[in-house]
Write a structure and sequence with these properties.
- The structure is a single chain.
- The protein is mainly alpha-helical and about 190 residues long.
- The protein has nine helices and no strands.
- It is globular, with a radius of gyration of 19 Å.
């Protein structure tokens, strides 16, 4: 007789993490408006009702995805700041910039950021999640780097430029306009 191990059920938190990871891919592919909770549920292998038990509506699911991505960005910046080759604002910001460039080579994370910024225009809850995410990141970058307002602004401006370069594939085109936009920016 074969001994059977008791089946271990996932906790709600484990299911929540599974749904969140699945939702990242779904929202990255089709954005806030193009993704349904039914698609997320099916991809996660659970019922739509269970998705709604974990996230009462699509807006809350999407804002949780956005917040999760901001947490990933913050963690990457923290690691980079800790491993910077010096303690000057320039050295710390350069290390964080390199870490961010590597991070957005994961298209899902970059796409979530782009979709969130687009949805923020007319979805107040998404706008607030994006605002809060950037507020925390800006304050972290300012404190960790010791950079000036101008240096911190330039750091974020270059990050937005990286989004543009990566999203349109400008780094793969040899033309005057792409060389202008890509000059001095590292891509992975």
């Amino acid at each position: 007789m074969k001994s059977e191990r008791p089946r271990q059920l996932s906790t709600a938190e484990e299911r929540r993490e599974t749904v969140l990871r699945t939702a990242i891919g779904a929202f990255a592919a089709r954005g806030y408006w193009g993704t349904t909770t039914t698609e997320v549920a099916k991809a996660a292998g659970i019922s739509q009702a269970y998705v709604y038990r974990l996230f009462p509506n699509k807006e809350l699911l999407f804002t949780a995805v956005v917040e999760h991505c901001f947490v990933q960005v913050r963690a990457a910046l923290e690691r980079a700041a800790a491993e910077a080759r010096g303690s000057s604002p320039e050295a710390v910001l350069e290390a964080m910039g390199d870490a961010y460039a590597l991070l957005i080579s994961d298209n899902d994370l970059m796409l979530i950021q782009l979709h969130a910024q687009a949805a923020a225009v007319c979805e107040p809850a998404v706008r607030e999640a994006v605002r809060q995410g950037y507020a925390r990141l800006v304050e972290y970058v300012r404190g960790a780097s010791g950079g000036t307002e101008g240096q911190v602004q330039e750091f974020f401006a270059l990050g937005m430029l990286c989004h543009l370069i990566v999203s349109v594939g400008a780094d793969g085109i040899d033309a005057p306009w792409t060389r202008t936009l890509s000059r001095g920016i590292k891509h992975y």
